[in-house]
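We treat protein structure as text, and this decision shapes the records that our systems exchange. Because each token names a local backbone shape, the row as a whole describes the fold. For reference, a complete record is included directly beneath this paragraph.
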Amino acid sequence: MTDMTISAIPCYRWGDPKALVAAFRMSFGAAHAERGFRPHRHTYAEVFWIERGRCRHHTAAGERVLLAGDLTFIRPHDVHAGDSVDGAGFTAVNIVLPHNGHRHLRRRYRFPVAAWPWWDGPTPRTYHLPPEELRVLRNLVEGQRPGDEGLFSRDALVLAVVRAALTSDQDHRAAEAPAWLLAGLRDGDGLLGGVPALARSCGCGVAHLNRTVRRHFGTTASDLLNRLRLDHGARLLRLSSAPVAQVAVACGFSNLSWFHRAFRSRFSTTPRRYRCLPRVWGGR
């Protein structure tokens, strides 16, 4: 993120108080004047997905490379920016909600806070959608007609995006990542044994593994493994009655306190409370 004070960063405000939702497509890159979008914030929530190309997305937590199919939920307090990777350009579809619209939806449909994509955690949530899900969302956006500002139209569009997120695999990018890396990530021993074990499972060195993971997932191999371990732990909590300590060990966490801290950081709740949350559309 560019070194700027908050007061110096542009803040975009909701322009039309009559509109309840707005959706639009923007392209950045070699064929356009803009290479990306500069650091900014909003008075409203938004969600966007990459339709074509790759975007280097900057937030307060660092940067992440977003690929075609990546869906990111931006909260009103988030400062973010994006630029093209290797100057190839990218196209994004953006949906913006009015003031507190995301909170009204969560309360209306009784979503648990930990499952809500616009959560209160440390970083914006990003999910990855397969091509068929992207086509559904694209058709919904393109089918919006002038005057479709009612609650039903707004809710139908936004809830379709939320449902796509909650039924997706956040870290599955088979269309882009090499087969040897995906095979290694599916290897239980590599998942539990840490980065060195994952590198051995993939048949490469640690440095090459880290470069490949950062290129395709926008994070380090260690952070990716921790996310996969915690996601596995969340599934075990849902699908079994095993004690939390046993779930922690099954996910590769030898220290129960470490597991609790990491789980709360990722899901904004404790493992025990997560297990008691109502299920939402098959989401975690």
User: Anything to note?
Assistant: Residues 179-276 form a domain with the Arc Repressor Mutant, subunit A fold (CATH 1.10.10.60).
